[in-house]
Amino acid sequence: xxxxxxxxxxxxxxxxxxxxxxxxxxxxxxxxxxxxxxxxxxxxxxxxxxxxxxxxxxxxxxxxxxxxxxxxxxxxxxxxxxxxxxxxxxxxxxxxxxxxxxxxxxxxxxxxxxxxxxxxxxxxxxxxxxxxxxxxxxxx
Length: 140
What we know:
alpha/beta; 5 helices; 4 strands
């Protein structure tokens, strides 16, 4: 059986799409092909790496990539994780793609003390984990 290709998209492929990518690989147990990308490549956010490591998911080897039209058009699911990516997602020519938008706040825009910023990263991480868990269990 072919694995379903899940393509997570965000603005910079630095935080939210990386977390979703890491969680789906960890929770999905290898039943999906998982890719992530951004409208731009902003580099992997070190705080995202840190909060994922806290829950036992290592994304430190991930790269921050720009959307690849070839992957986009062979994906089974294209899931945008921020409004900007949802609004600016390239045209998908494959009509069989299921496109969903799961909106999460951008933790990279959090302000305050380091502790407050990290709390925002953890909150977004936990929300993404819950959404991924539901997707793996229910397929939606």
